[in-house]
Amino acid sequence: MTDTSIFDNPYLFYERLRANPEPWRVVHSQGRYQRDFILFCRYAEARAIFMQGDSVSKEIRTIRPAGTATPFDLHLLHRDGQDHLRLRRLVAGYFSRSTMSELVATVEEIVGGVLDKLSGREQVDLVADFAEPVPLLVMARVLGVPDTDLPQIRAWALMLADEFDSLRVTEHDPRQLEANAKAFLDYAGSLVAPERRTTAKGLMAGLISACDQGLISAAEAQGMVMFLLFAGHETTINLLGNGLWLLLTHPDQLALLQENPELIDKAVEEILRYESPEQRTSFRIATQSLRVGDYCLE
After folding, report:
1. What is the dihedral angle through the alpha carbons of 228, 231, 237, 240, rounded to the nearest 10 degrees?
2. Are strands 56-57 and 37-39 parallel, antiparallel or unpaired?
């Protein structure tokens, strides 16, 4: 699959995928994995995979060629069982409902500041001028990174996202991707370095403390920070961009929301369902032979 026109309208492409009686075999062009990917496209098949339990794994290190694993492979979404729970518990409190409610005033201040900068302009790029800066600035407050670092973090994240995508990864030289990942990892590691014990705050301070207590390794902390810096803004930018586009192209729904602002929570849920911010990233690794529908994975 190399046709990048699917980015213009992926749903016609998805329809073609679902119409095929067999799952699709996908070869990652950078050779970052020891196995090909088998792409299942139907809801029932995806649900069956998610319900497999110990027959599937998220431990991406197990399919990396020798010498290619990095600390980024150690974040919580690439771990199973007790390791996943251990890492999740270390950060869950920082993203709880009560903690997020304390951020409302901060988010409102950030949104107001971004909108003030747009006041009086004849033309506005809703993604570049609004959807991008708002999540990045909120993430900076939550994770305690300087605003001046955000453009570089965004540049690293964009290239990292391309590295995960077989349709975009070929746009970059492998050496460029490797250098980008190393620079991003080095930066993440600097935020939880032992010498920052006295200056780190919030989540970063918590991870440094967890390292000191032996609850997490230095490599795991580095991978977790890189993951949070990446995931902490990428999907929200996509959500805001999708939401703005959907409302502008469905003026009746925009008018309904303007007349009934109390519907905003349901509107966000519907936007997430109707135009998902992430569509091609999840994977599972078969740890033993298993059957998915009529297809047997060996």
Report:
1. -100
2. unpaired
For 16, 120, 160, 234, the CA distances from 62, given in Å and listed in that order, are: 31, 54, 20, 26
What are the C-alpha distances in Å from 292 to residues 14, 25, 43, 63, 289? 19, 14, 11, 20, 10
Cα angle for residues 110, 116, 122 (degrees, 5° grid): 135
Beta bridge partners of 292: 295
Q: What is the pLDDT of residue 14?
A: 87
| DSSP string for residues in 76-141 | GGG--HHHHHHHHHHHHGGGSHHHHHTTHHHHHHHHHHHHHHHTT-S---TIIIIITHHHHHHHHH
pLDDT digits (tens, 9 = 90+) for 45-88: 888 888 888 889 999 888 888 888 899 999 999 999 999 999 99
Q: What is the residue whose two structure tokens read 């999540």?
A: 135
What is the model's pLDDT at position 151? 95
Residue 108 has a pLDDT of 95
pLDDT of residue 175: 84
What is d(CA 208, CA 192) in angstroms, rounded to the nearest whole number?
Answer: 6
Residues of the chain with pLDDT under 50: 1
Which of 160, 166, 157, 159 shows the shortest CA–CA distance to 234? Answer: 157
Would you say the C-alpha torsion 16, 22, 28, 33 has a positive or negative sign?
Answer: positive
Both tokens of 73, joined, read: 């492979």
